[in-house]
Write a structure and sequence with these properties.
6 strands, Nucleotidyltransferase, domain 5, globular, alpha/beta, six-stranded mixed sheet
Length: 204
């Protein structure tokens, strides 16, 4: 396994295939306040590519092209947050999307534990460390621990998707999951437009 750090954008000519695991790191959880700092990606081959963005201009044309490429499936865990961050800071609509958290909630109804650490422990027998989750992602130089943490968040998503796809099919919820994934860009727009917590489908 190799973790590659790239400054500003993905390197020219990098081919990550047609299914890419993606995650991001920000300065906090308020999308419109807390800057997008890092985007990490993996093609499922055991390697991770960590892009430390240039926050002065967010000029990352190759990364933006990948996010909006309709021929490349993007796997996330809690895609709602990342997709909103990419929309706000990079100005791109991310599609198509697969979200392992949504898939988990639809098929693992025997538990209320749907975090990435919980999923990798149960479905892959892998223990993940979340020690660097709240570190300073806006630092000029990322530490090795930060880079390793960022990489770990995308290295297992391909296999998790495979396991969850089998469970969704078993429970007859594959189409329902796909419909939820397709709605995610709209859900992100609602978050950014001021309806992050309001259930607009509720009666009251």
């Amino acid at each position: 396994m190799t973790n590659h750090l790239h400054k500003g954008d993905l390197p020219e000519g990098l081919d990550l295939g047609n299914i890419v695991a993606i995650d991001s790191e920000t300065m906090g959880l308020n999308t419109q306040r807390d800057a997008l700092c890092v985007v990490q990606l993996s093609s499922g081959d055991g390697d991770a590519h960590v892009v430390q963005l240039n926050r002065a201009d967010y000029d990352a044309p190759r990364l933006k092209a990948l996010l909006s490429d309709k021929n490349v499936l993007k796997i996330f865990h809690f895609a709602r947050f990342d997709v909103a961050a990419f929309k706000y800071w990079l100005g791109v609509d991310t599609t198509p999307i697969y979200c392992t958290k949504i898939a988990s909630k639809l098929c693992r109804t025997y538990t209320d534990r749907h975090g990435l650490k919980d999923l990798t422990r149960e479905l892959l027998d892998v223990e993940m460390s979340k020690q660097q989750q709240s570190s300073d992602w806006g630092a000029a130089k990322l530490s090795k621990a930060q880079i390793d943490y960022a990489a770990s968040d995308v290295l297992h998503l391909h296999l998790l998707r495979e396991r969850l796809e089998g469970m969704l099919a078993r429970e007859g919820r594959t189409d329902l999951a796909a419909a939820c994934f397709n709605f995610l860009p709209i859900r992100a727009e609602l978050d950014l437009a001021g309806w992050p917590e309001t259930d607009i489908f509720a009666h009251s």
